[in-house]
Design goal:
Layout: E1 2-4, E2 15-24, E3 29-38, E4 45-55, H1 57-60, H2 68-89, H3 107-116, H4 123-131, E5 141-147, H5 151-168, E6 172-176, H6 177-183, E7 189-194, E8 200-205, E9 216-221, E10 226-233, E11 236-242, H7 248-258, H8 265-278, H9 302-315, H10 320-349, E12 353-357, H11 364-376, E13 381-385, H12 395-407
Parallel strand pairs: 2-5, 5-6, 9-12, 12-13
Antiparallel strand pairs: 1-2, 2-3, 3-4, 7-8, 7-13, 9-10, 10-11
Helix pairs in contact: 2-4, 2-5, 3-5, 6-12, 7-8, 7-9, 7-10, 8-10, 10-11
The structure holds 5'-O-[(R)-(carboxyoxy)(hydroxy)phosphoryl]adenosine and zinc ion (ZN).
Zinc ion binds at residues 177, 181, 222, 358, 392.
Length: 430
């Protein structure tokens, strides 16, 4: 690691170069990355040295959503093998030589690690048998998601990171998952530029060719969140609008379930909606645009789901065309509400950079419509993460961890206690 943290007062002039091991277990993805980060806050540069992810989606399908106990058990089972795979990919995996056998690790250390991992069923056994033969890798910091998310799931990642700190003496920092979604655009960015009509041309750009101007605005849309976040500068986030009930991804999932489609519902609804548009099926369904004229920046999606429920109840058995129609109208309603509120937020904040992140931005219709915004707002840059980094992943946790280290270098030297905070949230703007 080479650092230049001399300018303690001016974070933007700090630079460093470090290897970050990052861990994500907030929901149903278990992920580990090793990322080399360099540069300062104005142009951070990230190189992914290794990255492994196990998605539990197939396992949760039969429950129609994420089942926390199962998520916790799967994280505990998969973290250690994913770490080894990632170390190997990053060329940082070295086995202890005969002369440096596990006996070098004091029994006390193992007892402490056993205590740390006490609540994570089966994790200690696999951790010890695997890692006692592996040398400490050349990694400078461990970044682990500490919230928001499912607390039992978050704890597995945090305990695992604390066990690694004990074993390898590498500092650990806790990262806000939502900051991870925001900084995911620093990894590899797609700048949305749409040429009308209706061909979508989007360019994948490294951040070097674009730039984030502050204040920036982030629209975070995932299975658990729908938030408009004003970013004054790195590290200064405030919520200026959010959902009062269901998150937008949750609404996609629930409507999909009403239509008899599997979890996760977003891609399924999107597929039906696209078919409806392509085949120009006549419009037969009208759904509300909840809170579109509320005069604030908040959202509500549960009413939209209920409107679908009532439609189905009153309509009786649905034909294939009915399903296509519902999916298209639902997607259109979501787009209308998201666009209206985002435009209001752009006007309120004067932001010229809009970051859209979270799993729902995989939706082609939403991407397309937001790309068109650049025609109305000609100074606006719309950035979305590359698809791999839009759903939950650990590489985005490394990028947020790096921003934190640049802002607060002391994190590397004074170890703070990290706890799982299921409801961790940015402050609300006053
Ligand atoms: O960010 P994410 O991977 O996990 C959370 O932190 O929640 O987002 C998952 C959500 C799910 O609700 C899923 O249905 C939704 O993203 N999603 C989509 C699409 N792909 C995933 N929603 C709409 N259209 C899509 N193409
Ligand atoms: Zn997420």
């Amino acid at each position: 690691m080479t650092t230049n943290f001399h300018s303690r007062k001016n974070p933007s002039s700090r630079t460093t170069n470090m290897k970050i091991l990052s861990i994500e277990t907030s929901c149903d993805e278990t992920a580990v990355s090793i990322v080399e980060a360099s540069g300062g806050l104005e142009k951070p540069v990230f190189t992914i040295l290794g990255s492994s992810l196990f998605s539990q989606i197939e396992l949760h399908k039969e429950y129609g959503g994420v089942f926390p106990t199962l998520a916790k058990r799967e994280h505990a089972k998969n973290l250690t093998p994913l770490l080894v795979k990632t170390l190997q990919e990053a060329k940082l995996l070295e086995y202890n030589t005969e002369s440096k056998l596990p006996s070098d690790i004091a029994t006390d250390t193992w007892t402490e690690i056993e205590n740390i991992l006490e609540k994570e069923h089966g994790l200690f056994e696999i951790f010890k048998t695997t890692l006692e033969n592996i040398s400490r890798p050349q990694v400078d910091v461990i970044a682990v998601t500490s919230g928001p998310g499912l607390e039992p799931a978050l704890w597995v990642g945090i305990s695992f990171a604390r066990a690694l700190l004990k074993l390898w003496d590498i500092p650990v920092i806790g990262v806000n998952h939502m900051e991870g979604h925001i900084t995911s655009v620093l990894l590899k960015t797609e700048e949305l530029k749409i040429s009308i009509p209706p061909l979508l041309t989007s360019h994948v750009l490294p951040l070097a060719s674009t730039s984030i101007q502050f204040p920036a605005l982030a629209l975070l849309i995932s299975g658990g969140h729908t938030e408009l976040v004003e970013i004054k500068t790195w590290g200064q986030y405030s919520i200026i609008g959010q959902t009062r009930d269901d998150a937008v991804g949750e609404a996609f999932d629930k409507v999909a379930r009403l239509l008899g489609l599997p979890y996760p519902g977003g891609p399924e609804i999107s597929r039906l909606a696209q078919t409806a548009r392509q085949n120009q099926i006549p419009h037969t369904v009208t759904l509300p645009r909840p809170m579109i004229h509320s005069g604030d920046l908040d959202f509500s999606f549960s009413g939209l789901k209920t409107a679908v429920l009532y439609y189905i109840r009153d309509h009786g058995e649905l034909s294939e065309n009915d399903k296509l129609n519902i999916a298209r109208e639902f997607e259109d309603a979501v787009v209308d509400v998201l666009l209206t509120k985002t435009k209001e937020a752009l006007e309120q904040t004067g932001a010229q950079t809009l970051i859209i992140a979270g799993g729902v931005i995989a939706n082609k219709k939403i991407k397309h419509e937001f790309g068109l915004l650049t025609h109305t707002y000609t100074d606006l840059t719309v950035l979305v993460p590359e698809t791999t980094f839009s759903t939950d992943n650990s590489t985005m946790i490394a990028s947020a961890g790096y921003i934190q280290v640049l802002l607060y270098p002391d994190l590397l030297t004074s170890q703070r206690q990290i706890i799982a905070e299921g409801n961790l949230a940015f402050p609300k703007s006053s």
